[in-house]
Amino acid sequence: MKSKITLKDIARELEVSISTVSKALKNSEEIGRDTKEKIQAFAKLYNYKPNNIAISLKNKRTKNIGVVIPDIVHHFFTTVIRGIEKYANARGYNVIVCLSEESFDKEVINMEMLANGSIDGFIMSLSSETQEKGDYNHLKEVTEQGIPVVLFDRITQEVECDKVVIDDELGAYQATKKFIDQGKKRIALITTDDYLSVSKARTKGYLKALKESPLGIDESMILKMPSMEMDEGAIKTFLDNKEPDAVLCVNEIFAVCGMRFVQKKGLKIPEDISFIGFTDGVLSKYANPSLTVVAQHGEKMGEEAAKMLIDKVESEAEEETYQTKILEPTLVIRDSIAH
Amino acid sequence: MKSKITLKDIARELEVSISTVSKALKNSEEIGRDTKEKIQAFAKLYNYKPNNIAISLKNKRTKNIGVVIPDIVHHFFTTVIRGIEKYANARGYNVIVCLSEESFDKEVINMEMLANGSIDGFIMSLSSETQEKGDYNHLKEVTEQGIPVVLFDRITQEVECDKVVIDDELGAYQATKKFIDQGKKRIALITTDDYLSVSKARTKGYLKALKESPLGIDESMILKMPSMEMDEGAIKTFLDNKEPDAVLCVNEIFAVCGMRFVQKKGLKIPEDISFIGFTDGVLSKYANPSLTVVAQHGEKMGEEAAKMLIDKVESEAEEETYQTKILEPTLVIRDSIAH
DNA sequence: AAACACGGCGAAAACGGTTTCGTGTTGATA
DNA sequence: TATCAACACGAAACCGTTTTCGCCGTGTTT
Description:
The structure is a homodimer. Helices cover 46% and strands 16% of the residues of chain A. By secondary structure, chain A is of the alpha/beta class. The model of chain A has no long low-confidence stretch (mean pLDDT 95). At the A-B interface, helix 4, helix 5, strand 2, helix 6 and helix 12 of A face helix 4, helix 5, strand 2, helix 6 and helix 12 of B. Chain A binds a DNA duplex through residues 6-8, 16-20, 22-23, 26, 29-32, 35, 50-51, 53-60, 117. Chains A, B: Pfam families: LacI, Peripla_BP_1. Chains A, B: One of its GO terms (molecular function) is DNA binding.
C-alpha cells in the first residue's frame, strides 16, 4: 500500500524546498530548466496528484456542488441530477447529493452539513413539507453567508436567488387546450394539494384553458390527492362518479392508474377517454397505451441550474442580481390521446 | 453578507488563544468554567460551525463517500443510491455521485478526480465498457492506495475488495423454475450480451433450471440484445419466430415491450404467454398486466454496501480481508404469470 | 571596483482547525 | 519557606497546498 505522495515527499527526496516543487509542477518561470525537469519527471514517476482538500482549504473553493432534492427514486429528479452532473463534471465540479425525503428537518440538516465548507453552492428543489410550512430560513441563512443557491422546479418566491422552472401553467394550459380542441367536454384534473408550487401552477393553467373555452370551470372535476402517495381508491371513485372524457394528471402515476382502471371498466383509450400526464418518464413511454405527457425536460433543467450556479460561484463580482429561467414544456404526443 | 466565523475570530474577539477556543468548544476539562461558558455563548451567538475542509485536512478523513455508477436514470441504481444515502447520512457521511455513463474513460476520470482526497472510499458498479474491456487497473490503483472500495451488482472477481450482489443466478433459476412448474414448455430468455456480469449469471440460472427439467436446453430460445438499448424490432421478430409461452427478461423494459407486442397479436397474458422480468421498478408495478419480477432489493444493497464501506473506513485495523455479501432475490408475483 | 539586475531558489505565512507540550499562577503540603 | 501538584491557558506543530517576499550568487554595467 503505497500511500499518496505529497509535495513534501518530493522535496525531501530531491533535496529542494517545497515551494520549489510546487512551482516546478506548475511550470513556473521562476524555476530553472534542469530543476523543473527533474521534479516533473519525479512527480510523474510517482504519480503525484495534489491533494484536493488542501487546495480547497487554500482556495476556499471546493469544486463541489450540493444538490438537495426530496427524492431520487423519481424519474424527473434523476434526469435533473443527470443534467447537473454532466454539466458540472465538464466544468470540473463534483456533485454531492442529499435527499430530504420530503422532510423539512432533513432538508435543514443536510444544508447545514454541507454549508460548512463542503460545497461552493446549492441546487435544490424544496421538500413538500418545506413548501407546506413555508419556512425558508435555512435558505436565507446560506444565501446570507454568500453561498449561491439555485432553486429548481419546486421553488419559492420568498428567497432571493436564481431559479429555473418549466412553465407548468403553460404546460397544463396547452394540454387542457388540446383536450378542448379535440372536442372533449368533461375534462378532469387529478392533482395534489396546492402547497406544492408546481401543482398550483398546473391547476392554474388547467383552469385558465377551461375559462377561456365555452366549457367553463367545474371545480368538482378536480381531484386533489392529499399527498404524492398513490391512492387508487380515490382515483377510482372519482373517475366513476365524474365520468370524464379526458383527464389531465400532474404526474405519470396518477395517469397510468387512471388508465388501467378505465380500461378494466371497458372504456377505450383514447376514444372514450383520453389521458395526459406530466413528466416524460419510462412509465409514459411503456404504458399501454403509451401516455401523452407534458415533458419537463429535466436534464435541460439540471444543466441550466448547474450553469447558473457555477457561473455565479466563479464570478468574482458580487452582483446581487438574480434571474429566473423559465423553460418551455413540450407536449409529447402518444397513444393516450387521439392524433 | 456575514461570512463564516472562525476560531481565530472568536479568539481575537474574546482575547484568548485559538487553542483555548477550540478546547472550550469541545468542552475540554482543561478550560475553566467561566472561560468555557463565555466562549460557548459567544460561539452560539455567532453560530460558529467548524469548517469541514479544515477538519478533513487535519484528520485525513472527509466523511464523503464516492459513488460511481453507470447511469442514474435507472430505477435500480436510484434505489441503491437511496439506500447508500440514507445509511451514509445516518452515520454522518455525504455521498458524491459520479456517472460513468457506461464509459470506461469516464469511470477512470471520475475515480481519479475523487481519489485525491475528496472521499474516504468508493462504492461502485462497473460500466459496461469496463466489463467488456476487462481492464480494472483504475480500481486496483485506488485499492493499492489504501482507499476502500465496495463493488455492487456489476462486479468483477479480478479486484480484491468487498462486494455485494444479489444472487442473480438464483433469481433467474427460480423464475425459470416457476415457469416450468406452471407447465410452460417453450421458455424463452431475453438478455444482453454476456460481458455484463449480471446477464451472464442470469443466463446461467435460466440454463440450470432448464437442464434440470425434462424440457432441456434450446439455445435458440435465447435472444441476446447487443446493448441495453431497446430494439423493439429484434424482440418482435424473436417472439414471432419462436412463439414462446413464457419469457424471462433481464430487465423490465424488455418484458414490457414483449408484453405489449404479444398483446397486439391478440395473445392473452398470462394464459397464452407469461412474463417475468428483473428489477422491481415502477414499470413492473404499473404495467398492464402488472409484471412479475425478480426483485433486486436495491435499497438494501445500497445500505449493505454503505455499511461495509464505512465500517472499513472507520476500522483502524488494516485487515486485508474482504467479503462478498450475497443478497437473496425475491420473486414478486404479479399478473403477468398465473397465480 | 562598486553598483546593479536578475535568475533561481527557499523561508514563511496563510487557509482553519486539532492536539501535544509547555508554562505561569495558585494553593496546599512538607 | 521551599516544593509540588493542579489548574488554566498559550505556543507551536501539523495536515498539504499556494504564494509572496527575501536572499544569494552570478554576470553585466558604469
